[in-house]
Design goal:
Blueprint lengths: L6 H15 L4 E3 L1 E2 L2 H8 L7 E3 L1 H7 L10 H14 L4 E4 L7 H10 L4 E5 L5 H17 L5 E5 L11 H17 L4 E3 L6 H11 L4 E4 L7 H7 L3 E3 L3 H18 L13
Parallel strand pairs: 1-9, 2-3, 3-4, 4-5, 5-6, 6-7, 7-8, 8-9
Helix pairs in contact: 4-5, 5-6, 7-8
């Protein structure tokens, strides 16, 4: 009897969950198309990659925030998953109106994990979305690695620091209880906030984004963080390099030597 179609993605999902829970910090560099995915996946340090919804939307000419049609988003994350041999965690925003169905379709395209954001919706609604995503994975026979995002810090700037942390922990624990693999709390914060979040959520349960004030990877690993990703910033970095190169060429410069042939 041949293995079910979901077997390869199930194996990748198992590996992706292990990477989140391993004592070593999981670093995932965000990509936006097949070329960027292959370039990152070719590096020996790459254990998994993540997609950036903002960058994929921009590539298609759409603003961020689920303005891109879900079919276009899923087409690209599926192409990325098919192009690399490492697990892919897709940024699927808030689930495009139907988190369970969006996750089910993503799994069918080879995606092993995903971000799902709460946008500070009522906690009951956000928990229901997490449960729907986890249930979709279970129905497909895939232990889906869900990185449940809460915007308690990012969108709560008008609230006191301690209240934002407490809300992130309350929401995060509810998402973990609903089956999430870890909790993504994006924000530009220091060691103290990271330590409080880890203390509240548990070791290897917090995921962060690599903004300027975030501690470096070795410190995050010491603090018990599970994962760091970089959101739209690798895409912005690439476009900055492109503009700088174009300015140099327009100014009479030449292409540098040592350009690597990437496919």
């Amino acid at each position: 009897m041949s293995a079910p179609a979901s077997a390869p993605v199930a194996a990748r999902a198992v590996e992706l969950r292990r990477l989140h829970h391993d004592p070593q910090l999981l670093q995932v560099v965000n990509v936006w198309d097949v070329a960027s995915a292959r370039a990152v996946a070719a590096l020996p340090e790459t254990a998994a990659i993540a997609t950036a919804s903002h960058a994929i939307a921009a590539m298609h000419g759409y603003p961020d925030g689920e303005r891109i049609p879900v079919d276009l988003m899923l087409d690209m994350v599926g192409r990325i998953a098919d192009a690399v041999d490492v697990p892919v965690s897709a940024d699927l925003e808030a689930g495009y109106g139907d988190p369970g169905e969006t996750i089910r379709r993503a799994i069918g395209l080879g995606v092993a994990g995903a971000n799902l954001e709460d946008g500070l919706r009522p906690i009951a609604d956000a928990v229901a979305a997490v449960r729907a995503a986890v249930s979709a994975g279970a129905a497909e026979g895939v232990p889906f690695a869900l990185n449940a995002r809460t915007d308690a810090w990012l969108l709560g700037r008008d609230r006191p620091r301690d209240e934002r942390i407490a809300d992130a922990i309350e929401r995060g624990l509810a998402y973990l209880d609903a089956g999430a693999t870890c909790v993504f709390v994006p924000g530009d914060f220091d060691d103290d906030v990271v330590a409080e979040l880890v203390d509240g959520l548990g070791e290897r349960r917090l995921s962060v984004i690599g903004l300027p004030s975030i501690p470096p990877p070795d410190r995050l690993e010491e603090l018990g963080v599970a994962r760091i990703s970089y959101g739209p910033y690798p895409h912005r970095l690439a476009l900055t390099a492109l503009q700088d190169a174009a300015t140099h060429l327009y100014g009479g410069g030449v292409l540098p030597s040592g350009i690597r042939p990437l496919t």
